[in-house]
Amino acid sequence: MPKSFRTSRTLAVTVAVSLLGVSTTVLLAAAGGPSAKAAAAPGATVRASVPDEQNGPESDGRGYQQELSADGTAVAFTSRAQLDNLRNWVGDATFQAVYVRDLARNRTVMISRGQFVRPAPPSYPPITPPPTTTTAVIKYGADRPLDLSARGAQPTGEPELDFGETAPDGASYQPTISADGRYVAFVTEATNILEADDDEDHDILICDRDPDGDGDFDENKDDGERDYRYLKVTEPVLTGVEFPTRIDEVSKPRISDDASRIVWQDEVYTGDSTSSRAKTAVLRTVPGGPVTEPAEAQLVDGLFPGARRLYEQIDPDVSGDGRYIVFAGLYSVPDPESDGSHDVYAIVRNEAGTRTNVRVDLDVDLSPVSENHDVLTSHPAISGDGTELAFTAEAVNFEGPLRQPNVYVVRLDGRAAPVDSVIVSRDNTGALMNGSSPALSADGRFVAFVTDALGAHDGVDAAETRSCLRWNNTTYAGAPMLDLAGVPPHEDARDIRTTCQVVVRDLATDRERLQAEQKRLPGTLASNGVGECGESGSCAGNDDSTPFSGVPSPSLSLDGSAVAFDSNATNLVPDETDDNEATDVFVRTFRPELRADPDPLDFGDVIVDETFAQTVRFDHVGIGPLVVDSVQITGDDAASFVLGATTCVGEGIVLQQAGSCLVSVEFAPTEEGERSAVLHVVLPDEREFTVDLRGTGTLEPTTPDPDDPSGPARFAAGPDPLDFGERLPLSTGPRSTVTVVNRGGSPMTVGTVTVEPPVARAHFTVAANTCTAPLPAGGSCTVSVAFSPQQTTDLTGALQFMDDTPGAPHLVGLRGSGTEPAIELSPAVSPPGRVITVTGTGFAPGHRMVTTVPGAVQTGPVTVAADGTFRGGLLILSKATIGSFPVIAKVADAVTVNAQKQLLIVTPTVSPADFVVRG
To answer: CB 3.0-4.6 Å disulfide test: which of 343, 414, 679, 792 passes with 818?
Structure first.
């Protein structure tokens, strides 16, 4: 067997943990001060490792090992301090406990709470176990005897437990949290959280913060104690028969966003060697139902095609839907230059519960990054649907203690074939830079990682100084340089370093700009400092974020709007004094803004009872999703300004980095004189951005331009909006037409006509366009639009005309809706063994229907009629479970088109319903 993967990868982590709180970085030669001021992405940072009901002051003890819930409302972390009012706290500085900072409810709660006091075990005289030659047997399961080798005779019966909430009697750490924050899994050594966990070995427990499922987390019971429910995930691996001994150690649990699955690392000690494997367990038996007793743990299959042997798996992660597992592994693969084999590190994605594995540590040319075990791949991360994967790749040995890791992101298609691979750890010029510890948002759009490079983000760099990216094992110091294929070679320029910072990139924007050959945008600084760079700049944090390479990667919310990380910096939160000299947990929430152009919007002179339309462009400023809730016009003269079409508001419209939207405003004076109003663009959080509107009504035409006495061209189009009304989903009804007229005195040219924003193109399409030649004064042309609703809701968009007239581009509104489908059951109450009839209205004509309910099967194929109706049967199986269940009817090839109705399955009766038995 080759050198232990743990030795070559995690020895640095082991040393770093022992030095926690001690500087583990190297000083570099001092350079000049911070660079010129920069405008970082707008946002706000809060400290999460704080006592209950506090937003500001730091806690007495450190906070670390953070993980942010996908919805961004809660962050789980570990701390040695008492941060809530749990009684009987032991006050041991080395004690660790798991907490959740509920950002939505402004409270901090301990998760690893003791539920009882376990009596101290009695003392027994030691005995010497008899010699045995029994072969050691490794067992996985729950039915095993305790290790009695160190005890004499044992008493019978179970000791009585003193129930009542109290401090835990052992450490807990490495938390992981579900998307909504309800479920928190963690490693614990405590013996008084769950009755079944009565040893001090490492085990993984799950805490349910809302056992009654009413959405109110952390409720108190009548006795004032937290209403929590705990479940045990792991069972020990034992060796020996007469005197079984535990030989494994669990760590690094990760729970899927939907809490359907959990994965973890299990290190097994056998003789003089150790080996780590990834394990997994199913947590939900019913989709959307509560987490139940975890299923028996399974080893994660990890042998990818072409690999001969799997030695170890570490750092497993799981997709948001629980379908895929990713991990770092050490393998034996065939040697192309001999008949033998050699070892290689790899990142592998496994389809949970199967042997379907694909190697994903791919370079930009889609060949493996690591061809031997001198190239280390680590820190795997996975998106919610498992199609985006990130990892770190670097040379294991190189000259000096500093590392030069690189962060890769690989995309897979639905068939697990690679689409592309990019190195995202590049500076603002596009040059390669150091990067490590990546995290992906569940939607796969954003990546966060740690870097010590200068010029890596949109903030102001700290001075050249020490770095968190270094080998903590001196064995690597002075090792020879390696010429490694698959990773960029060592560069002296990358050894010019600053304090480690957390940087976020929008992968979709990066790809779009690369394809359009546009300049790369700066990375977005997440570990923003305050107070030292002036009002127009945003400092980098004044110490490492994260503290060293062995702590968890940053974590992102589902949509990338928030990022959590551990940091030693003391200047991340405004108006706070951070003097606890400890690592803390921080959450940065991005709050993108809008910048209007033009502002103000000036219509000039317009003849009374005529109109003039112009558009305002709103540019996204910052990073992260931005949704517009409404657009409105206010002011004393608001009636003179008419709000037209917009690409800012509508179903599915989300602005992202470097994006923009348009609002059309028409000035229609009814009398002469100056008029003014204000255009408001309002966000869901009630922030708003305004544009002043100005115009003057006049009775006389303006003086003609001597060079253009006939006057400029003027764009007009109608009907506006183009309204398609309600249609059946996925149907293709008749087209509608917009007529464009040149009401000016000069020719007008229409360049392009498109449906905007892009999400509207799923429903509205330009079917025909005659506006391809210049229009003379008074001339007209037409654009035909088709509408096929792909969703069952109100849908909007706009035709955008890129013309050469004043006020361009011009918009014409588009709107329509998809019918909301519905079903009926006959009967709606039935015993097993019967066929019920399902009828539906408002479905997609010509499409096949699939109707499902637990314990029933569809009696035959069903196709929707031209009028959107269908009729089919469901056979309730004889062994169907009694209870109330939803019958779901959906279009087979468009799952968003569906409806449901509740079916009550009842116990069959042998007596007529009106027969009464007396006596």
So the answer is: 792
CA 572 to each of CA 98, 566, 568: distance values in angstroms, whole numbers, following the listed order:
23, 11, 10
CA distance 552 to 75: 13
**What is the chain's length?**
919
pLDDT of residue 464: 82
- The strand order across the sheet containing 341-351 reads 309-318, 324-334, 341-351, 357-359
d(CA 524, CA 588): 11
Contact 451, 435 (CB under 8 A): yes
Q: Where are the alpha helices (DSSP H) in 326-400?
A: none
CATH number of 715-818: 2.60.40.10
pLDDT-based confidence at residue 132 (cuts at 50, 70, 90) = very low
Enter the tokens of residue 559. Answer: 């949509």
pLDDT tens-digit series, residues 134-191: 333 333 333 333 343 333 344 445 567 878 888 898 999 999 999 999 999 999 999 9
Q: Which of these CATH numbers, 3.40.190.10, 2.60.20.10, 3.40.462.20, 2.60.40.10, describes 593-698?
A: 2.60.40.10
Residue type at position 447: V
The three state secondary structure string of 716-738 is EEECCCEEEEEECCCCCCCCEEE
Question: Beta-carbon neighbour count of residue 228 at 10 Å?
Answer: 22
Backbone angles phi, psi at 6, to 5 degrees: -60, -40
**Which is it for strands 436-440 and 418-423: parallel, antiparallel or unpaired?**
unpaired
- Is 822-905 the same fold as 593-698? yes
Indicate the fold that domain 822-905 takes in CATH. Answer: Immunoglobulin-like (2.60.40)
Q: How many CB atoms lie within 10 A of CB 158?
A: 8
pTM summary value = 0.86
Among 147-161, 210-224, 420-434, name the one with the lowest average pLDDT. Answer: 147-161
Strand order in the sheet with 829-830: 829-830, 894-905, 883-891, 848-852, 862-863
Give the chain's end-to-end CA distance (angstroms, integer).
Answer: 78
Domain segments of the chain: what residues? 5-590, 593-698, 715-818, 822-905
Q: How confident is the model at residue 466 (pLDDT cuts 50, 70, 90)?
A: confident
